[in-house]
Amino acid sequence: MADRPRDLAERMARRRKMAGKPGQAAGDGYLRETFTLPRAAARERAQAFFARYPKAGYMSAVETWRELPGGDIEFTMRRLPSAD
Questions:
Q1: According to the model, what pLDDT value does residue 22 have?
Q2: Which residue among 20, 55, 63, 69 is least enclosed by CB atoms within 10 Å?
Q3: CB 24: neighbour CB atoms within 10 A?
């Protein structure tokens, strides 16, 4: 039986509810982790992240980053939950 418009709307609403939970996909399938570290530690963490989740298999990326007033770096890494 084909999905009804109401079924589609309910599925989309469930996805939106998950978007606000830490570590959950924001409706686009990616998992995100946010870190706040000193510059050198932030660089090491990003390198370790890419070593564990290579760009080619997980589409890993630094999604956002900013320098905080104290000199720390806040950044969000994203990746797909699994590789094909």
A1: 54
A2: 69
A3: 14
